[in-house]
Amino acid sequence: MTLPAIDPLAITSSSDIEILLSHCDGPLCWEHVFGNRYPVEIEIGSGKGKFIIRSAHAHPDKNFLGIERAGKFYRILKERALRAGISNIRIVRCDAAYFLRKYIPAASVHAYHIYFPDPWPKKRHHKRRLVTQEFIALLSETLMPGGHLFFATDFREYFEIITMHARACPTIQEILCTTILPGTVDPEQAPTNYERKYLMQGREIYKAAYIKRLSP
Fold first, then answer.
1. pLDDT tens for each residue of 121-158
2. Hey, which residues does 210 pair with through a beta bridge?
3. Is the Cβ–Cβ distance between 136 and 165 less than 8 Å?
4. Is 154 assigned a catalytic role?
5. Number of domains in the chain
6. Three-state SS for 122?
7. What is the pTM of this model?
8. Which residue in 16, 61, 95, 118 is the catalytic one?
9. Within a domain: residue 183?
Protein backbone atom coordinates (compact mmCIF):
# COMPACT_ATOMS: atom_id res chain seq x y z
CA MET A 1 0.00 0.00 0.00
CA THR A 2 1.31 3.47 -0.90
CA LEU A 3 1.18 5.99 1.91
CA PRO A 4 0.04 9.53 1.13
CA ALA A 5 2.79 12.12 0.80
CA ILE A 6 3.30 14.47 3.74
CA ASP A 7 2.86 18.14 2.97
CA PRO A 8 6.04 20.04 3.95
CA LEU A 9 3.77 22.76 5.39
CA ALA A 10 2.67 20.26 8.04
CA ILE A 11 6.05 20.63 9.73
CA THR A 12 6.93 24.19 8.72
CA SER A 13 5.34 27.49 9.62
CA SER A 14 3.42 29.74 7.29
CA SER A 15 6.68 31.57 6.65
CA ASP A 16 7.84 28.34 4.95
CA ILE A 17 11.25 28.31 6.60
CA GLU A 18 10.72 27.35 10.25
CA ILE A 19 10.59 23.72 11.30
CA LEU A 20 7.87 23.27 13.91
CA LEU A 21 8.97 20.59 16.37
CA SER A 22 5.47 20.50 17.84
CA HIS A 23 4.41 18.81 14.59
CA CYS A 24 7.26 16.28 14.58
CA ASP A 25 7.34 13.04 16.53
CA GLY A 26 10.50 11.44 15.17
CA PRO A 27 13.22 11.60 12.52
CA LEU A 28 12.49 14.05 9.72
CA CYS A 29 12.14 13.19 6.05
CA TRP A 30 14.28 15.72 4.21
CA GLU A 31 12.24 15.40 1.03
CA HIS A 32 9.14 16.41 2.98
CA VAL A 33 10.94 19.27 4.73
CA PHE A 34 12.44 20.81 1.59
CA GLY A 35 10.23 19.45 -1.15
CA ASN A 36 13.16 17.92 -3.05
CA ARG A 37 15.93 15.34 -2.76
CA TYR A 38 18.93 17.65 -2.82
CA PRO A 39 21.80 17.04 -0.35
CA VAL A 40 21.29 18.54 3.11
CA GLU A 41 23.90 20.63 4.92
CA ILE A 42 23.39 21.76 8.52
CA GLU A 43 24.93 24.73 10.29
CA ILE A 44 24.90 24.42 14.07
CA GLY A 45 24.83 27.86 15.67
CA SER A 46 23.77 29.95 12.67
CA GLY A 47 23.87 33.22 14.59
CA LYS A 48 22.71 36.09 12.40
CA GLY A 49 22.74 33.92 9.29
CA LYS A 50 25.61 35.25 7.18
CA PHE A 51 27.09 31.86 6.32
CA ILE A 52 23.91 29.88 5.77
CA ILE A 53 22.16 32.54 3.69
CA ARG A 54 25.19 33.10 1.44
CA SER A 55 25.66 29.34 1.07
CA ALA A 56 22.02 28.78 0.12
CA HIS A 57 22.27 31.58 -2.47
CA ALA A 58 25.47 30.14 -3.93
CA HIS A 59 24.27 26.51 -4.00
CA PRO A 60 20.65 26.25 -5.15
CA ASP A 61 21.22 22.52 -5.73
CA LYS A 62 21.68 21.93 -1.99
CA ASN A 63 19.41 22.31 1.03
CA PHE A 64 20.54 24.17 4.16
CA LEU A 65 19.24 23.90 7.71
CA GLY A 66 20.28 26.38 10.38
CA ILE A 67 20.04 25.47 14.07
CA GLU A 68 20.15 28.38 16.51
CA ARG A 69 19.26 28.24 20.19
CA ALA A 70 19.62 31.89 21.27
CA GLY A 71 16.37 33.81 20.83
CA LYS A 72 18.04 37.12 19.99
CA PHE A 73 20.10 35.66 17.15
CA TYR A 74 17.28 33.41 15.97
CA ARG A 75 14.99 36.38 15.41
CA ILE A 76 17.65 38.09 13.31
CA LEU A 77 18.33 34.86 11.42
CA LYS A 78 14.64 34.41 10.66
CA GLU A 79 14.18 38.00 9.52
CA ARG A 80 17.20 37.87 7.21
CA ALA A 81 16.30 34.46 5.77
CA LEU A 82 12.77 35.62 5.01
CA ARG A 83 14.04 38.80 3.43
CA ALA A 84 16.43 36.78 1.25
CA GLY A 85 13.49 34.79 -0.13
CA ILE A 86 15.48 31.59 -0.57
CA SER A 87 13.60 28.35 -1.09
CA ASN A 88 16.39 25.96 -0.04
CA ILE A 89 16.80 27.13 3.55
CA ARG A 90 15.07 26.04 6.76
CA ILE A 91 15.71 27.10 10.35
CA VAL A 92 14.89 25.72 13.77
CA ARG A 93 15.31 27.06 17.28
CA CYS A 94 16.46 24.16 19.41
CA ASP A 95 19.32 22.66 21.37
CA ALA A 96 21.56 21.09 18.73
CA ALA A 97 22.38 17.84 20.53
CA TYR A 98 18.71 17.21 21.29
CA PHE A 99 17.68 18.01 17.72
CA LEU A 100 20.27 15.68 16.20
CA ARG A 101 19.44 12.87 18.59
CA LYS A 102 15.69 12.99 18.06
CA TYR A 103 15.05 14.41 14.60
CA ILE A 104 17.99 13.72 12.28
CA PRO A 105 17.88 10.36 10.43
CA ALA A 106 21.02 8.26 10.48
CA ALA A 107 23.44 8.74 7.56
CA SER A 108 21.32 11.49 5.98
CA VAL A 109 23.37 14.71 6.25
CA HIS A 110 25.82 15.76 3.55
CA ALA A 111 27.80 18.20 5.73
CA TYR A 112 27.86 19.85 9.15
CA HIS A 113 29.23 23.34 9.75
CA ILE A 114 30.11 24.36 13.32
CA TYR A 115 31.70 27.78 13.45
CA PHE A 116 32.75 29.55 16.64
CA PRO A 117 30.76 27.56 19.19
CA ASP A 118 30.74 29.14 22.65
CA PRO A 119 34.07 28.09 24.24
CA TRP A 120 32.83 28.51 27.83
CA PRO A 121 36.41 29.38 28.89
CA LYS A 122 35.97 29.05 32.66
CA LYS A 123 36.78 25.54 33.87
CA ARG A 124 33.56 25.25 35.87
CA HIS A 125 31.61 25.90 32.67
CA HIS A 126 33.39 23.36 30.45
CA LYS A 127 30.49 20.93 30.88
CA ARG A 128 28.35 23.35 28.87
CA ARG A 129 30.50 23.05 25.76
CA LEU A 130 28.74 21.72 22.69
CA VAL A 131 31.51 19.60 21.19
CA THR A 132 32.20 16.50 23.27
CA GLN A 133 33.20 12.96 22.39
CA GLU A 134 29.54 11.96 22.47
CA PHE A 135 28.53 14.86 20.23
CA ILE A 136 31.19 13.98 17.65
CA ALA A 137 29.84 10.42 17.60
CA LEU A 138 26.32 11.78 17.08
CA LEU A 139 27.49 13.95 14.19
CA SER A 140 29.20 10.97 12.58
CA GLU A 141 26.17 8.74 13.04
CA THR A 142 23.90 11.19 11.21
CA LEU A 143 26.47 12.01 8.52
CA MET A 144 26.30 10.12 5.24
CA PRO A 145 29.39 8.17 4.11
CA GLY A 146 31.68 10.63 2.35
CA GLY A 147 30.04 13.55 4.15
CA HIS A 148 32.00 16.30 5.87
CA LEU A 149 32.36 18.05 9.22
CA PHE A 150 33.74 21.60 9.30
CA PHE A 151 34.88 23.39 12.46
CA ALA A 152 36.27 26.86 13.16
CA THR A 153 37.08 28.72 16.37
CA ASP A 154 39.35 31.45 17.69
CA PHE A 155 39.83 29.64 21.01
CA ARG A 156 42.93 27.45 20.78
CA GLU A 157 42.33 25.33 23.88
CA TYR A 158 38.82 24.43 22.73
CA PHE A 159 40.11 23.71 19.23
CA GLU A 160 42.63 21.25 20.62
CA ILE A 161 39.83 19.47 22.48
CA ILE A 162 37.61 19.39 19.38
CA THR A 163 40.38 17.89 17.24
CA MET A 164 41.27 15.40 19.98
CA HIS A 165 37.68 14.16 20.12
CA ALA A 166 37.36 14.07 16.33
CA ARG A 167 40.61 12.15 15.88
CA ALA A 168 39.41 9.60 18.42
CA CYS A 169 36.25 8.90 16.41
CA PRO A 170 36.96 5.81 14.24
CA THR A 171 34.34 6.63 11.58
CA ILE A 172 35.77 9.98 10.47
CA GLN A 173 39.14 11.04 9.06
CA GLU A 174 40.84 14.42 9.35
CA ILE A 175 41.45 16.17 6.01
CA LEU A 176 42.30 19.67 7.24
CA CYS A 177 43.85 21.23 10.34
CA THR A 178 45.11 24.77 9.89
CA THR A 179 45.61 28.17 11.48
CA ILE A 180 44.56 31.36 9.72
CA LEU A 181 46.84 34.22 10.71
CA PRO A 182 45.43 37.76 10.84
CA GLY A 183 46.87 39.89 8.09
CA THR A 184 47.16 36.97 5.67
CA VAL A 185 43.52 37.10 4.53
CA ASP A 186 40.94 39.82 3.94
CA PRO A 187 38.49 39.90 6.88
CA GLU A 188 35.78 41.13 4.52
CA GLN A 189 35.94 37.79 2.72
CA ALA A 190 35.35 35.81 5.92
CA PRO A 191 32.42 33.38 5.65
CA THR A 192 30.96 34.25 9.07
CA ASN A 193 30.46 37.39 11.13
CA TYR A 194 32.57 36.02 13.98
CA GLU A 195 35.50 35.19 11.73
CA ARG A 196 35.43 38.68 10.25
CA LYS A 197 35.25 40.23 13.73
CA TYR A 198 38.09 38.18 15.19
CA LEU A 199 40.40 38.65 12.21
CA MET A 200 39.88 42.39 12.49
CA GLN A 201 40.80 42.11 16.18
CA GLY A 202 44.02 40.34 15.25
CA ARG A 203 43.08 36.89 16.52
CA GLU A 204 44.19 33.62 14.97
CA ILE A 205 41.47 31.38 13.53
CA TYR A 206 41.73 27.61 13.86
CA LYS A 207 39.99 25.37 11.34
CA ALA A 208 39.59 21.62 10.91
CA ALA A 209 37.62 19.40 8.54
CA TYR A 210 36.76 15.71 8.54
CA ILE A 211 35.24 13.21 6.16
CA LYS A 212 33.13 10.21 7.13
CA ARG A 213 34.78 7.01 6.06
CA LEU A 214 33.03 5.05 3.34
CA SER A 215 33.39 1.86 5.38
CA PRO A 216 33.97 1.17 9.09
1. 899 999 999 999 999 999 999 999 999 999 999 999 99
2. 149, 174
3. yes
4. no
5. 1
6. coil
7. 0.91
8. 118
9. yes
